[in-house]
Amino acid sequence: MCGVGRSILFTLPMALWTLLMFTPGLLKPGRVEHAAAALTAAFTVGLFFCMIRTGQTYRWRRIFFVALGWLFPVGFIAALIGLRGSMSIPLERMVSGDTPFCFMVTPMLIIPAALTRTVVFPGSILPTPSNPHSIAAMIGLWLAMTLVLGKAWCAYGCFFGGIEEGFAAMAKRPRLRKLDERLRLIPWAVLLAVVLLSAAIFEPVYCMWLCPFKAVTEFPAVRDLQTAIQFGVFVLLFAGLVVVLPFLTKKRTQCGFFCPFGAFQSLFNKINIFEIRFDHNKCTDCGVCRASCPTMAITAESVGQGQALMNCMKCGACVDSCRKGAAVWHIKGTAVGLRPERARLLFLYGAWAMATMFGGSVIANSLATMIHFVLPR
Amino acid sequence: MTSGLHWQVVTEALLLGLATGPVCLATCGPVVAPWMLAQPRGVARQLCQLGLFLAARLAGYLLFAVAAWLAGEAVPQAWQTRGWPTALVDLLLAAAMLAWALGWPRSGSAQPQESKLVQIGAPQPGRPAAALVLGFCTGINFCPPFLAAGVRAAAWNHLGAALVFFLTFFLGTVVWFVPMAALGLVRRSAALVAVARITALLMVLWYAGMGVVLLAGEGFRG
Amino acid sequence: MRHRILSVLGYAMAAATLLVALLVPFKLMGGIASLVSHAGLRIDPVYSGGTPLRTIARNGYTLTIYTLVRPHLLQRGEPFQQVVFAPVSALPTHVEESIDMDGDGTPDLRVVFDVPANPATPLRASVQALNGNYQSLAAVSNDSFTRLLARTGNRIVLRVPLAKSN
After folding, report:
1. What confidence category does residue A39 fall into, taking pLDDT thresholds of 50, 70 and 90?
2. Spans in chain B with pLDDT lower than 50
3. B50-62: per-residue pLDDT in tens?
4. ipTM passes above 0.90
5. Within a domain: residue B221?
6. A219, A230 in Cβ contact below 8 A?
């Protein structure tokens, strides 16, 4: 816990950053846009203040993240319908490079691009009037944020993860408790499989066949048996991995047990300076941290080694749930348990700056869309 | 077979193998990569295992060479496009990968009652049979260069020429597989082996799906 | 001593991460995007249709012939060649064209389709191959990336697959 005065002091830099990030939004024409930007700015700054004041990270971060995940489809779907009248993307649009680029396809593009300098995605390299989400722009955004966040992208940046985190938060207790630890290895297998297959058939296999979030964003227009099967798979995976299983297990089952991009993002944890560590002097091996981790990134073995696994997304659940203060924020190279609050603060400044910059703008945009929908123009 | 014919066969086959090797690698990669990652570490060991795999693949090639020559110039249309023979091979490959990935417990082995998921990643004794079966299945997989070689081999008026053609074509493609031995440098762990086997299970779904779709007569178009 | 150095380095890296975070929206994002856009990458021709080869002028509109596109490795789809009719606003309501695709002076395809006033109405064309290089298509619409007749903005895109022997 931090005193109010100190909390305000520590929040000030974030408030300034937020003002800087939302000034363009505040300058947009329209009172609704101003209101949405102001509301979102207050929301993100308020949550940061709460994180500092209470010393807790996870529950405040989760509020932001669930808001991002649930509001993103609102703005995105509205934009699609405004642009082409439908969530489905017809072949004509793909051929003219109008498919908005999604960061999740990135690992599948690498080998084909290295071999032939072609991008196996029906988008456009540079932004166009009908497709501002160009490949260059989105890769620029994702990679820049990843240099700061590492795998924490999955807890502070990804606009899909909050959907299932919301469903996971709904149930008071998990109904399915015994989960095999090897489930956390599936994302790596999915990554390897889609990378190999995409390199073989020069198609983004995950996007064409396996992405659950196609059900709430956009998907190839259903016009024959193949596209009907694809759509069916998307809906089933969404229902299972994003809605039902998170509700039953209180885990982020899509993120932790399926998403190949999450596995890919885990690689960046190797170069990120922040991590979660376990202080052996304080740990009593009660297992609360393991139970609290939404993606099973903590095992008994890893706690014994004093660290979380590579797929730790630094959501703060284990730190907040540890009653002995054994789970701590840590800067690599420094002593474990020595001033963990400093490590946490330094991490949060960077992570929340990214969250505000990107997720905040998405939330503001979606809020404006909703307000426009409700209020007469 | 005259020496002139011999050199003509060898040159053409070698060039075809070298030129289309990447396609063979792309076809076999999804099968080979997970399997090799589940093998013990060490480049020399990987080369041995790869050698077994490729030897079995060669056996498949030569078997097809004989069949193609017997069929003569009129190689059936079904063999030239991705028709029912391709579907059957895809299903056979899926079955072989499933058997290997799940690693049916032998009698007397530990924990036969535990779920297959728990067994994935558990240390497995070396299974040369897996290398041979997977290699053979990929050997008779009707990938485009394989079909091109088959059509060409069938045109030779001499069984020996057809066999030499396929052997040389095979050697040309092997050049592209050798770098895969570098997977032996990757540090092994139970987790890596588990990932490899789960990947194989996903490939089972892919090949089985392709096989069923082809049998149903619906080619998935681009 | 070693611990101290590592600790200093750790904090320095943490500070550097914060600095990088500050630079993300102002320099870094745009810089990386610029690098990507100048990396010489292009959209896979199966999606983009290839690169323009030459343009044939007609009465108020043009036909742009694109390069042949052959799928990579095991990529699904047939080899094809794309023709673009533009602008749609200048096209007659009934289009009948004999198109020389390979520039040898001899027409290779005969294409017939109607241009509906409503852009949302699906297009349908009959394509007759005048030699053995292309496939004839009885009623091509938006079947696949390699067999296609589609309106995209103010253009009509036609993709004709090559004959199986090619």
Report:
1. very high
2. 105-119, 121-123, 222
3. 888 888 888 887 7
4. no
5. no
6. yes
- Its domain, for residue B165, covers 3-104+117-215
- A87 burial class (0-12, 13-18, 19+ CB within 10 angstroms)? middle
Write b or e for each residue in B58-71: b if 16 or more Cβ atoms lie within 10 A of its Cβ, otherwise e: bebbbebbebbbee
Check: CB of residue A262 under 8 Å from CB of residue A152: no
Contacts of C1 in chain A (CB under 8 A): none
Estimate to the nearest angstrom the gap between the alpha carbon of A19 and the chain centroid: 23
Give the helix ranges, DSSP H, for B72-189: 77-80, 84-102, 116-119, 128-139, 144-155, 159-177
- Report how far Cα C132 is from the mean position of its chain's Cα atoms: 25
> How many independent structural domains does chain B possess?
1
Q: What is the pLDDT of residue A365?
A: 92
**B202 — contact with chain A (CB < 8 Å)?**
yes
What tokens does A161 get? 């993860």
CA distance A131 to chain C (A): 13
Q: A273-338 domain in CATH 3.30.830.10?
A: no
Query: Could you report the per-residue pLDDT of C98-157, keeping only the tens digit for each?
Result: 999 988 889 999 999 999 888 888 889 999 999 889 999 888 888 789 899 999 889 999
Whether B30 and A200 lie within 8 Å, measured CB to CB: yes
Measured torsion, CA atoms of residues C82, B83, A208, C145, in degrees rounded to the nearest 10: 10
Whether residue A21 contacts residue A38, with contact meaning beta carbons closer than 8 Å, is answered with: no
* pTM metric for this prediction: 0.89
What is the helix (H) or strand (E) element at residue C64, kind and residue range?
strand C62-66
Could you say which of C74, C78, C143 has the minimum Cβ distance to residue B26?
C74
Residue for token pair 């609102």 = A74
* Closest chain C residue to the Cα of B82, Cα to Cα: C76
Q: Tell me the three state secondary structure of residue A187.
A: helix
pLDDT in tens, A125-161: 998 888 888 999 999 999 999 999 999 999 999 999 9
Rounded Cα distance between A349 and C17, Å, is 10
Structure confidence at residue A58 (pLDDT): 97
Q: Mean of the per-residue pLDDT values for chain C?
A: 90
- Residue B164, CA distances (Å) to B23, B60, B173 in order: 21, 14, 14
Q: What is the mean pLDDT of chain A?
A: 92
Question: In A15-40, which positions are buried (b, 16+ CB within 10 angstroms) versus exposed (e)?
Answer: bebbeebbeebeeeeeebbbebbeeb
What's the pLDDT band for A330 if we cut at 50, 70, 90? very high
| 8 Å CB contact of B198 and A186 | yes
Q: Where are the alpha helices (DSSP H) in chain A?
A: 4-27, 31-54, 58-84, 91-95, 106-116, 135-149, 153-156, 161-170, 186-201, 205, 225-237, 245-249, 253-257, 260-266, 288-292, 300-304, 317-321, 340-354, 361-374
Residue ranges, comma separated, of all CATH 3.30.70.20 domains in chain A are 273-338
Q: C residues 5-64 near A, CB within 8 Å?
A: 6-7, 9-11, 13-15, 17-18, 20-22, 24-25, 28-37, 39-49
A123/C contact by beta carbon, under 8 A:
yes
Q: What percent of chain A has pLDDT over 90?
A: 75
